[in-house]
Amino acid sequence: KKIVYSGIQPSGTFTIGNYFGAMKNWVQMQEDYRSIFCVVDLHAITMPQNPADLRRRTYESIALLLALGIDPEKSILYVQSMVPEHSELAWILNCSTYMGELSRMTQFKDKSQKQGENIRVGLFEYPVLMAADILLYQTDLVPVGNDQRQHVELARDIAMRFNQNYGNVFKVPEAYFGESGARIMSLQEPARKMSKSDENINAFVSLLDDSKTIVKKFKRAVTDSDMAVTHNREEKPGVSNLMEIYACATGKTLDEITQEFEGKGYGDFKQAVGESVADTLLPVQNEYQRLLNEKAYLEQIMHTHAEKASQIAWRTLAKVRKKVGFVTV
Ligand code: TYM
């Protein structure tokens, strides 16, 4: 079986961008692949975090992933810091990664701009840790949103270089994107990606927003002065984004959506998109609330799954340690 690996940061709430871009594919892929999913708290601390909040959000992230349909019988679902192999491999890979490569990462450029003078080293080397995550598990496919494309490319480069220098150790992974949803844009500025850290809360839909709020946010979504529900990312970015969200929530194709709203205004269309998203999320939210009260169950999963992950990760790390010349007695 091919191996699928992906991760999500436990920082802030998750948006429908995270869901349609990544987690929805995770839930589908676990049926056909050996799947491993990680809540990446080591990545989260590359930005300032309140410790109590980080710990709470790590529990919440596990609960939400379970509520979304990650099946702990089929997939491994664990917390990154509980598997120390990640930090060790990241260090080793740091030593075969160039400053120049990391300087070209667009996410680093964006995030470091906001940090002014005091840019953290961890933020700079974040993509190396991500490469370590992926490579430890001999991953074939990495289901992510489009904003992670460059990071997966780097992981491939690092893997190939290491293999060339030391002999074959790593499987060279490939990014995987769904048909639609890989780039869910802001509802207010459709040229920008939907982000949980947006100051304007109308720009994103949280997976935990209640139905009324969701419908309201879609009603306020920016469209254009045209009337037609047709897909054209350049000329009609707002409408195209809503169409893709609707496609993700309902499984309809873009053509079917255009037909459905022919002769109707944007008002009807936005209402339908809002309701479809709210209907998708309602059962997830109920299950999430139930799981939050099952702390012992969540901890049992975190514990047993970290052990399973560690067993796999250690096999790769042991080979790497030998290849680079560490003493193994
Ligand atoms: P993170 O936590 O920022 O986002 C989690 C996933 O959600 C996707 N995503 C989106 N997809 C479509 N439209 C959007 N607006 C949108 N916003 C977010 C992201 O592409 C991602 O797939 N570095 C990663 C986490 C990570 C990882 C890994 C992923 C760490 N190690 C190993 C894969 C493999 C991150 O910060 O994702």
Automatic annotation (TrEMBL):
Enumerate the PROSITE patterns for this protein: AA_TRNA_LIGASE_I
Record's subcellular location: Cytoplasm
Query: Keywords, A to Z?
Result: Aminoacyl-tRNA synthetase, ATP-binding, Cytoplasm, Ligase, Nucleotide-binding, Protein biosynthesis
Keyword rRNA processing on this protein? no
Map motif 'HIGH' region onto the chain.
Answer: 10-18
Binding residues for ATP, per the UniProt record? Answer: Q9, P10, S11, G17, N18, G145, N146, D147, I184, K193, M194, S195, K196, S197
Catalysis performed (reactions): tRNA(Trp) + L-tryptophan + ATP = L-tryptophyl-tRNA(Trp) + AMP + diphosphate + H(+)
What main location does UniProt list?
A: cytoplasm
What are its GO cellular component terms?
Answer: cytosol
InterPro entries reported for this sequence: aa-tRNA-synth_I_CS, aa-tRNA-synth_Ic, Rossmann-like_a/b/a_fold, Trp-tRNA-ligase, Trp-tRNA-ligase_bac-type, Trp-tRNA_synthetase
UniProt GO BP:
tryptophanyl-tRNA aminoacylation
Quick one: which residues bind L-tryptophan? D133
Record-listed E.C. numbers: 6.1.1.2
Q: Name one GO molecular function term.
A: tryptophan-tRNA ligase activity
Family matches, as Pfam families: tRNA-synt_1b
Give start-end ranges for motif 'KMSKS' region: 193-197
Q: What does this protein do?
A: Catalyzes the attachment of tryptophan to tRNA(Trp).
On subunit structure and binding partners, the annotation says: Homodimer.
Query: What NCBIfam families would the database entry show?
Result: trpS
Annotated PANTHER family: TRYPTOPHAN--TRNA LIGASE, MITOCHONDRIAL
Designated name of the protein: Tryptophan--tRNA ligase
What is the originating organism of this protein? Acetobacterium woodii (strain ATCC 29683 / DSM 1030 / JCM 2381 / KCTC 1655 / WB1)
